[in-house]
Amino acid sequence: MDNFLLEAIKQAKKGLKEGGIPIGSALVKDGKIIGLGHNKRVQENNPMIHAEIDCLMNAGRIGSYKGSVLYSTLMPCYLCAGAVVQFGIKKVIVGESETFQGARAFMESHGVEVLDTDNEECKELMKDFIKKNPELWNEDIGEL
């Protein structure tokens, strides 16, 4: 498995330990991680802090995102896909999209290459969380 996806999984597990939603992300440029993040909607009582947004915030201002790759344990939603498109990130590598289809078509329609690794650990993390926390999950994806 890709080491960068492993780092995103570690972030997802960190979020789960904090009582949050287990989604993690890593931003990579020139073969190095420049930002890590995890979903903090619950922990920070802030609906905007999705894993990818947290990751981009933690990377800070990097100037150009040319050549960067965003890793996420789950297919990005429209909020996060919008950030990908806005900043010109051209490649997103995803742990899974079985539990949430997200905004793949939106990203691809804007020239983003999206690779779904169909990772079992990512799927199990989300399936287990959704089973135990259906209301919180539905709140996260806007389906309450």
Radius of gyration: 14 Å
Strand content: 15-25%
Question: Helix/strand-derived class?
Answer: alpha/beta
Any idea what the shape is? globular
Largest sheet: 5 strands, mixed
Number of strands: 5
Helix fraction, binned, reads 40-55%
**Uncertain residue ranges:** none
Q: Widest sheet: strand order?
A: 2-1-3-4-5
Order of helices and strands: HEEHEHEHEHH
How would you state the average pLDDT, rounded? 96
Number of helices in the DSSP assignment: 6
Distance between the termini: 35 Å
Concise overview:
This protein is an alpha/beta fold and 144 residues long. It has six helices and five strands.
Would you mind describing this structure in some detail?
By secondary structure, the protein is an alpha/beta fold. 42% of the residues lie in helices and 17% in strands. It is built from 6 helices and 5 strands; from the N terminus they run αββαβαβαβαα. It has helices at residues 3-17, 51-59, 78-87, 104-109, 120-132, 134-140; strands spanning 24-29, 32-38, 69-72, 91-94, 113-116. Strands 2-1-3-4-5 form a 5-stranded mixed β-sheet. Strand 1 and strand 2 form a beta hairpin. Helix 5 packs across helix 6.
